Amino acid sequence: MQDLLLRLQPFHISEHIWNGAEDRVLKVRSAKQSKLRGGDIPAAVQDLLQRAGFMGMTQISYFLVDNHLISALVERWRPETHMFHMPFGECTITLEDVAILLGLKISGAPITGYASMDWGALVQRLLGMTPPKAMLVGGRLRMRAFILRMIGGYLLTDHSSSFVSLRYLSFLEDLDVCGQMSWGSCVLANMYRELCVATNYDHKEIAGSGILLQLWAWWNYALHKPREETKEKIVKYREYFDRLKREDELLPTLPPYCLEDSHVWRSTVPLINFHIVEYHYADRVMRQFGMVQHIPAPPIHPEKLHDLSLRGKDNTDWSRMHVQFVQEWQSRHHRVWTQPACDTPHLSYSSEYMVWYRKHTRRWISPSSAKEGYVVSTNLRMFLNNYL
Fold this sequence. Notes:
mainly alpha, AminoTfrase-like_pln_mobile, 6% strand, 36% helix, 388 residues, two-stranded parallel sheet, 14 helices, Serine/threonine protein phosphatase 7 long form isogeny, 3-stranded antiparallel β-sheet
């Protein structure tokens, strides 16, 4: 394997697993089940949620996140490219997936600005209460609190599972403006960051949006909700992904309401959530959009973006600090990739892309799967050389 693309491989969890390290099952952070779902919410409140852009989230039935499935996916996540490296090529969670699975708006102003303000005054003004200082760790008034719980519990979960950052509350002041903002790209930026951090073997948990990760896996692959917990589950998922073929993906038909922002789904742009900036490389997964996949250009690596945090930056205006990335996002309509349509998402073993990909990937995570896969791969290569 050439390491020109996967420059972080020595620090990646797959390196530890390959070298015999103990399996790591991440704790996926999320809130407990809410008693209110879409059908239980009063009509007046539903209208407010619709205006704010969060009604789609209330339509998702509650389910337990599978820590083993998420952990197996993280083993294939590449922080260099924001891709899952599967045997058939690169794939990822795209802006399209966020729009369809979570019902969040994609095309709109980014979620950024000042990350600190007078929290007590803000909570009093928007939620109608003045919380004790100890709580400030990190009709309409009630609805704002409901949205804030969704943000902190399911979309932008932190590593406490109990608190939500009040920096998001300021965006709920004007519900109509809130509904036109790009909450989808904000959630995806945060999820990319959490996936990148979780590829470090020493990390034991992952926050962000576990429901997005699991829905994406269920939506794209022939995976079913597990019936029981077993210690071997992560091994089974790992073997499943090691043997995965492109044909195993499900190609669903999209309902019309999902297409509102489809014109920017194929944009290669930075995703922004205050200090977090992560690139959405649509050009690397053209097959997910039904188009021919070319050999992609090297990914963009802005210096030290992963090292940025909110600590000690109370007076930072992140919209100014990241003005370059904000401008790139604002030009998203001009950064849309297109390719000729393809008849099938499957690429042959000897195709130009697959030849390139095999030189730049970690095809198998476990040695046991590698032995089996190598035999199959060798036999296929011999057949192609002798008969084609």
